[in-house]
Amino acid sequence: MNENVNVCIIDDDDIYQYTMSAALDSINSVNRIQVFLDGAEAMDFFLDNINNTEELPDVIFLDINMPIMDGFEFMEEYVKIKPKVGKRITIYMVSSSMDPKDVERSRKISEISDYIVKPIRETQLRTIIERLKENGKI
């Protein structure tokens, strides 16, 4: 079980980034928080660090609606590189959208663990991290 959890937030909303970072920072087992403004920026990081498991996150909170590369486009690219990633990464699609089409589309992508409607509360984040640790996923 990893006591040093690396978390990645991929979202273009500054306020959401701040509140998520602050909430995650209060969780003792969260070691590092990486923030990217869009899927393209995050994908560049992944490609640059594909063999560096220390740099890659254990958990990703991925927004749907972002400029340049949205969450679904990021997932299309991630699925292509996943076989080369030497680490299990748990991905949560996070959005303020309650559109059933978005929920269903995310459920069809096996690499997405769950669809979470914003806002995410600190207690919810703690529960997610603790369950992943208990289940040996991080």
TrEMBL record:
Alphabetized Pfam families for the sequence: Response_reg (PF00072)
Keywords: Phosphoprotein
Domain Response regulatory: 6-133
Family annotation (PROSITE patterns): RESPONSE_REGULATORY
Membrane-traversing stretches: none
Gene3D superfamilies listed in its UniProt record: 3.40.50.2300
Coiled coil: none
4-aspartylphosphate: residues bearing it: D63
InterPro entries in UniProt: CheY-like_superfamily, Sig_transdc_resp-reg_receiver, TCS_response_regulator
PANTHER family documented for this protein: RESPONSE REGULATOR RCP1, RESPONSE REGULATOR RCP1-RELATED
Name used for this protein in its record: Response regulator
Taxonomic source organism: Euzebyella saccharophila
